[in-house]
């Protein structure tokens, strides 16, 4: 059976993309589509390889009823082949991923996650790393909406 393969990408793979992965997995499972998708996340940087997401992200997600299970990994060239959709959080992530390849068939897989939802006025997911609890909650709400729009588009 063909699976739709979705990769979420941020800088560190400890705040935004592991939460996007967990939210999207949750929605896919709720929709009964678990077997139709392969879902993962990674970072463009290698600072947090092999470690769990930021404790603030885990705690905030839990307060919102979402469990996160992920260990950090860095984006690799193989991801351009493996995944159908590579959804990045901000324009810096976009630049960092696009500059790794000159192949059109790779580049066309890469999109800003927030650009999927055409009713969303913004197209970047802000980095909460140096922020407060309020910023983590904002990121949760943004990603909740963005991953819902993504599932609507892909299913
Ligand atoms: P993320 O957030 O890209 O959403 O995982 C960040 C995590 C770590 C750092 C920056 C952003 N850092 O500089 O270590």
Please supply descriptive tags for the structure shown above.
40% helix, 4 strands, Rossmann fold, alpha/beta, binds 4-nitrophenyl phosphate, 155 residues, 6 helices, four-stranded parallel beta sheet
Nutshell version of this structure?
It contains six helices and four strands. It is an alpha/beta fold and 155 residues long.
Notes on the protein architecture:
This protein has 155 residues and is an alpha/beta fold. The chain has one domain (4-154): Response regulator (Rossmann fold, 3-Layer(aba) Sandwich). 40% of the residues lie in helices and 14% in strands. The protein contains six helices and four strands; from the N terminus they run βαβααβααβα. The protein has a four-stranded parallel β-sheet, sandwiched between helices. β1 (4-10), α1 and β2 (37-43) form a beta-alpha-beta unit. The longest helix has 22 residues, at 133-154. 40% of the residues are buried. The structure holds 4-nitrophenyl phosphate. 4-nitrophenyl phosphate is lined by residues 10-16, 43, 47, 127, 129.
**What proportion strand?**
5-15%
Q: What structural class should be given to the helix and strand makeup?
A: alpha/beta
The best one-word shape is globular
- Strands side by side in the biggest sheet: 2-1-3-4
- Number of separate domains: 1
- State the CATH class: Alpha Beta
Low-confidence runs: none
- Count the helices. How many? 6
- What would the CATH topology be? Rossmann fold
CATH homolog superfamily: Response regulator
Report the strand count: 4
Rg over CA atoms? 14 Å
What does the average pLDDT come to? 98
Which CATH architecture?
3-Layer(aba) Sandwich
Q: Mind summarizing the main beta sheet?
A: 4 strands, parallel
Q: Helix share of residues?
A: 40-55%
Note the run of SSEs as H and E.
Answer: EHEHHEHHEH
Catalogue the ligands.
4-nitrophenyl phosphate
Distance between the termini: 15 Å
């Amino acid at each position: 059976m063909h699976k739709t393969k979705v990769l979420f990408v941020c800088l560190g793979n400890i705040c935004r993309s592991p939460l996007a992965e967990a939210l999207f997995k949750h929605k896919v499972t709720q929709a009964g589509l678990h077997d139709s998708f392969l879902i993962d996340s990674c970072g463009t940087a290698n600072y947090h390889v092999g470690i769990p997401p930021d404790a603030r992200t885990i705690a905030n997600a839990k307060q919102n009823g979402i469990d996160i299970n992920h260990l950090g990994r860095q984006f690799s060239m193989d991801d351009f082949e493996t995944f159908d959709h590579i959804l990045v959080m901000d324009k810096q992530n976009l630049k960092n991923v696009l500059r790794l390849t000159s192949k059109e068939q790779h580049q066309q897989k890469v999109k800003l996650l927030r650009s999927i939802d055409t009713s969303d006025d913004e197209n970047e997911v802000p980095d909460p790393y140096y922020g407060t609890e309020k910023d983590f909650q904002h990121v949760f709400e943004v990603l909740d909406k963005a991953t819902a729009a993504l599932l609507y588009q892909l299913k």
